[in-house]
Amino acid sequence: MDRNSINWSGPMPAITTPFRPDFSLDEEAFVANIDRLFAAGSTGMVAVGCTGEFWAMSMAERARVAALTVKACKNRGPAIIGTGAIRPEDVIEQIHAAKEAGADGVLVMPPFFAHLTDAEIIAHFEAVNAKSVLPILLYNIPGNAGNAITPDIADRLAGLDMVVGIKESSGSWTNFHATLNRVRDRMLVFCGPSSVYGVAATLAGADGLIDCFPNVWDKGCLDLWHATRAGRLDEAWALQETGIALTNLFTSGERTLYPSTKSAMNFLGLPGGGVPRPPLRRLSGAAQVGLEAGLRNLLALPAKVA
């Protein structure tokens, strides 16, 4: 397999996993969020990733979310399922569960917590690749995993049979662009922090965007891709400015990205928010007040959307 083996492209949101106050899975809200995002212009869904709080779910729950995603995506776009785990055996188990659910592909990140050499990271992906039954989208998010898929490592992994692409979420434009230049002839390259440099990534030739912000700002974040591709660059750059401001809002003032995302969805009356599971906690006090004030200000700004 390679980039020509599949037809994934465009804005595919990294979707939240909504939990009720008792921390049970809210299946209805999960599906409603997918429906809303497809209606707003999404081309596929990426579930059970970092935005989806994979670390807070059992393997059985992850398999259930995979099944819900596949059913909700039917005939509308690919369903790509996260498989975050430290041991390759656990990643492979999740890949087989995703296959059984009918998923189109899987998102595979490096092992986390244990700090690895380049050779160890490559060996992990080689072990997963050898037993994968679905196309693999690599996931570079060193801020969470603690281990990075550098451009050199991506170059090596592009030769693996089941690897078809990479979600580059390093947060570094230099790393993103270097990876794009090294592997774009062999695998798809998706931009993770599209709220920060999605326009530039799209202009540089990214195959699509995979970000958490469409959960909160669906039309703006998805139109960022569509406007850029259509050449409406004044509109696209205006949307990018708002995306950068939202990113700063969600990650400042005692706020972190994933609880902020859910709190914002709840505040805006959007399905798919709910509460985060421990160790994350819902926003409260000054953090929540500041988030709401920022949202009122930023989302009231005039912006032309398609």
Description of the structure:
It is a single chain. This protein is α/β, with parallel strands linked by helices and 306 residues long. It is built from twelve helices and eight strands. It has an eight-stranded parallel beta sheet with strand order 1-8-7-6-5-4-3-2. It has one domain (3-231): Aldolase class I (TIM Barrel, Alpha-Beta Barrel), CATH 3.20.20.70. The longest helix is centred in the C-terminal third of the chain and has 18 residues, at 233-250.
Question: How would the blueprint of this fold be written?
Answer:
Blueprint: E1 10-11, H1 27-39, E2 45-47, H2 59-73, E3 79-82, H3 88-101, E4 105-108, H4 118-131, E5 136-140, H5 142-145, H6 151-157, E6 163-168, H7 173-183, E7 188-191, H8 194-204, E8 208-209, H9 218-229, H10 233-250, H11 257-267, H12 285-299
Parallel strand pairs: 1-8, 2-3, 3-4, 4-5, 5-6, 6-7, 7-8
Helix pairs in contact: 1-2, 2-3, 3-4, 6-7, 8-9, 8-10, 9-10, 10-12, 11-12
